[in-house]
Every structure is written in C-alpha cells, then in structure tokens.
Design a protein that fits this description.
- By secondary structure, the chain is mainly α.
- It has one domain.
- Helix content is 67%, strand content 5%.
- The strands form two sheets. The chain has a two-stranded antiparallel sheet with strand order 1-4. The chain has a two-stranded antiparallel sheet with strand order 2-3.
- α1 crosses α6, α2 packs across α8 and α7 runs antiparallel to α8.
- The longest helix is centred in the N-terminal third of the chain and has 21 residues, at 33-53.
- The two termini are 23 Å apart.
Length: 155
C-alpha cells in the first residue's frame, strides 16, 4: 500500500494528516531508501556494541519519518528526564526489537502522531502555517525544514 494512502487511512485528524504527509515527503526526499538501510545497520551495530562493551547508543534518526531512537523508546514507555540526549547509555535487546518493530511505516505513523501531540501539548496556534512551522522547527531543529513543512502543509 502506498505510504501516503496509509497515512490517510490511519490518521483521523486532517491537520495531523497534512503534517505527517509533509514530514514524510521531506524525509523520504532527503533520505532515499538505500541510505535508510545503512541507518538500520548502524542502529543494530550500535546496540550490539552497547551490549558487548557498554558504549552508548547514538540517538540517530531512522525510518521513513526519521524519528529519533529516544522518541521510539519514549513512545514505547521508557522515561527520560532529558528529551534531547545525543546518546542513550543502555538499550536492551527487547528495546531494540521494539524499535525495529516500530520503524515499520504503519507503526511509525502512530509514533509521529504521538510525537506531534507531545510537541504541541499546552500550545495554542491560530493557523496551520504557524503550527506547521513550529512542528518543523521542533522536529528537525532547522528553520529551512520548518519553512519547507509549512509550504507542504498549505499546498
């Protein structure tokens, strides 16, 4: 099934549909599928290294929606005091399994929706443009990304 059709099917809120489709279009444009395969391998290698020698796991972004490992773990119920860690000290085998399971696009869509809710909690916006710009900046940390997401959402 086409990923955009899947987003339309799984997400009820029309604004969230636009935001997630915009994020999807940006991320899949800048990260082709062959590149994502290397990200998955890097994630698995980092976790194995964590188990063997105790090296921290980098909070890399993976999947078609480029969600950070920390956010996958948070979605799965793990608590963190800092949401902006560059490294995660310990990732269990079960957590790696859950991350690999959540990376699938049908599950990543729900993680992305949850993340948008988390970003927007206690915030009020009067326009989709402002909301999209805020989400883009929080999601990626770049004003260019924020403007690109805003443009995708108002097309």
């Amino acid at each position: 099934m086409d990923d955009i059709i899947l987003i339309n099917k799984l997400i009820d809120n029309n604004i969230y549909k636009k935001l997630i489709k915009g994020i999807y279009e940006i991320e899949t444009y800048y990260r082709p599928s062959w590149f994502r395969k290397f990200e998955y391998l890097y994630l698995v290698f980092s976790c194995i290294s964590n188990w063997i020698v105790g090296s921290p796991v980098p909070n890399v972004t993976v999947g078609k929606l480029q969600i950070g490992i920390l956010n996958y773990l948070r979605y799965d119920g793990r608590e963190f005091t800092n949401k902006h860690l560059k490294y995660i000290n310990k990732v269990s085998i079960k957590e790696l399994y859950n991350i690999l399971r959540l990376i699938r696009i049908d599950r990543s869509i729900y993680v992305c929706e949850w993340l948008i809710n988390d970003i927007l909690k206690d915030k009020k916006f009067y326009s989709l443009q402002t909301k999209a710009r805020y989400i883009g900046l929080a999601y990626n940390g770049s004003y260019k990304y924020a403007n690109e997401l805003e443009n995708k959402c108002i097309e």
